[in-house]
């Protein structure tokens, strides 16, 4: 048997609006901006819903009905769920229908799509818990497989999963990047585990075949362009010689947003699913099914954090410059005080700032090249992103001061 | 009088200074035709004749001209009169053409040209019509470039204007020295006439709107002291030195808030620097502010720093003093020449600036002594004095001319 494990990541952050020093302490609205502004969460969500969420959900649901062997796994962040509930609840309804068929599995992660694991384990656990609870409430499904934001993974996370993750949350596996520097001669097409892990398994992304679709599909400078299903099927066949589990992990927005509809990406996927399943020994598996396919082939150790981002596969897009470090350090430095207020709105605003997109917008790595980082930023520059973020932090500080004053008066 | 801008169509202090000087000169009995290179409504100016040299929208001088000489060959002006005005040089040439025609009908006693922008027109008036030329220097290209190089085209225009002028008025001794040292102009050809506060600034009704900087107010209640600086974020202003000094000061006294009011090409660099120094929480960028919000910056500040590498005058310091700020000025700022109750430092001396900031903010005695002192000094120079100075220069060049013919 040969299996494709298709996993898609669904996420939208709450972008901070152009929140200037003149707003600080006067209004606490960091998130809602004018509909036509660059940072309008509503406008962006509706745009992506039209270009990507609707057509791709329809494509997935259609194929679920046609093929009982078609399976998809998705991680859906809490901030996406909240925005969908507000601006396009039919999407939630559709996910619920799909999950009910048993052919769609939801993957666990931090509710706010944060890098909390690297700053505060306590915050990390509470965000993981919140996500699991919310998914259970909305879709009646208990998540079993975990992925951390941006596939950030290291041995420490591996051992957390094998102990607390397994005991407290019931996690049986984790998704991570199948990076050559880690795997060496080994193939990502097998089930692995962290060093000494008893309870949890690792699924590693087949980044070449994933990125052929996610990044290169419409690249006319690519020598393989145009990518046909026949060609890709051939590559899949060849790759199966290295192991029978092909982990295709990518952003959901690959379909319709990163690769626009006019590139033929939807037709490609429709055709690919049909073609793959037309061979008797082929099928699709969910992430939970994937870890049961075989015993772990080997132990994989990642002492340093590996992500699925950029050619460096590290956290440098989120923590590569002093502005990002400063912003995150100040943010997490406030945590205890924020939590001690018990003020739910304050805590919610603070948590929305933990979303990893915020430091990502401050990335200056390739700023001058105006590449993918710039394309996905709603700000004029990384410096503007930093400024508005820090102003929101100042306002949180102001609210903390007021809270303290209130308590002193009550005493 | 040859100028480049008048309020409200001004991009900075040049227009304000020209307006106040003209008003004071008229009060002393002068009769002025003031030429600007654009067409706009100046009906609120009734004491002199404002003459438009070009049919150009004043908006399109913003970001160029008076300050951004680096970009003089890059900016495209909209074609408002079917004339091809590609860069500020074209505008200057049209301005000269206009002056040449204008002076066929009208023969003033003196031509008074403000900065390199109008020096060519002034030189033309002198060469073609034999009119006495007074060149008024508000800033040199050396100031604008932070004393590093500068634009050779601007240098050439500036040098010719200064050489050809019968008399030069500099806004400070510091500027006089630059003109003398860098352009080899004889010392006694240069007179100094300082600037003063805009009349509107002193007389207008102002009341603080706490609402604008509510966060800073709240921090002040927590015992924070506010140190501000106002201006364009360019190399001329020496702000990275100030940022380093801020970090040093904060390491001694954490309850300091630094407000950087303004915008410019160095903004991003400064933000990054604040993060590098781990003082982001103590540094606030307001963006470009004017009017009420600018005055509120002064009002909310305890200390005002002028960190310029080279500042011909530095009117903002007087404005800050009007709002009761303690002033810390670089020795390279012209305004420091007329004030006594201020702290001074060399623009590169970060340690000294940090020392001064800590000293002032930690000692109420020192702070109130400086505040008290400056309150008696900042209005000492009036526009009337400056106008009298200009009139005496006019008389000198006219006498000189008569002797020649």
Characterization of the model:
The complex is a heterodimer of chains A (411) and B (405). With 411 residues, chain A is α/β, with parallel strands linked by helices. Chain A has 2 domains: 2-292, 7-stranded beta/alpha barrel (Alpha-Beta Barrel), CATH 3.20.110; 317-410. Chain A has helices at residues 41-66, 78-87, 90-100, 121-139, 155-169, 180-183, 207-214, 229-239, 265-277, 287-292, 316-319, 322-333, 335-341, 344-352, 357-361, 372-375, 382-410, and strands at 2-10, 72-76, 104-107, 145-146, 173-177, 191-192, 201-205, 245-251, 255-256, 259-260, 282-284. In chain A, strands 1, 2, 3, 8 and 11 form a 5-stranded parallel β-sheet that branches. In chain A, helix 8 (229-239) packs across helix 9 (265-277). Chain A is globular. The mean pLDDT of chain A is 95. Chain B is of the alpha/beta class and 405 residues long. Helices cover 44% and strands 13% of the residues of chain B. Chain B has 15 helices and 12 strands. Chain B has a 6-stranded parallel β-sheet with strand order 9-8-7-10-11-12, sandwiched between helices. In chain B, helix 6 links the parallel strand 5 (167-170) and strand 6 (190-192). In chain B, helix 9 packs parallel to helix 10 and helix 9 (239-252) crosses helix 13. The two termini of chain B are 23 Å apart. Classes of the chains: A alpha/beta (411), B alpha/beta (405). The A-B interface holds A 20-22, 24-26, 321-323, 325-327, 330, 364, 381, 383, 386-387, 390, 393-395, 398, 401 and B 211-218, 222, 267-268, 271-272, 275-276, 278, 280-281, 284-287, 293.
CATH fold descriptor of the largest domain in chain A: 7-stranded beta/alpha barrel
Mean pLDDT of chain A, to the nearest integer, reads: 95
Give the CA-based shape of chain A: globular
Spans of at least 5 consecutive residues with low confidence of chain A: none
Strand segment tally of chain A: 11
Give the fraction of residues assigned to helices of chain A: 40-55%
Tally the helices of chain B: 15
> Which two protein chains have the largest interface (Cβ within 8 Å of the partner's Cβ), and how many residues from each?
A-B, 24 and 23 residues
Mean pLDDT of chain B: 89
Query: Would you identify the regions of chain B where 5 or more consecutive residues have pLDDT less than 50?
Result: 62-77
Number of helices of chain A: 17
Number of domains of chain B: 2
Q: Would you identify the CATH H-level superfamily of the largest domain in chain B?
A: Glycogen Phosphorylase B
Terminal Cα span of chain A: 69 Å
Strand content of chain A: 5-15%
- CATH-defined topology of the largest domain in chain B: Rossmann fold
How big is the Rg of chain B?
Answer: 22 Å
In CATH, what is the class of the largest domain in chain B?
Answer: Alpha Beta
Provide the CATH architecture of the largest domain in chain B.
3-Layer(aba) Sandwich
Q: Output the radius of gyration of chain A.
A: 21 Å
Number of strands of chain B: 12
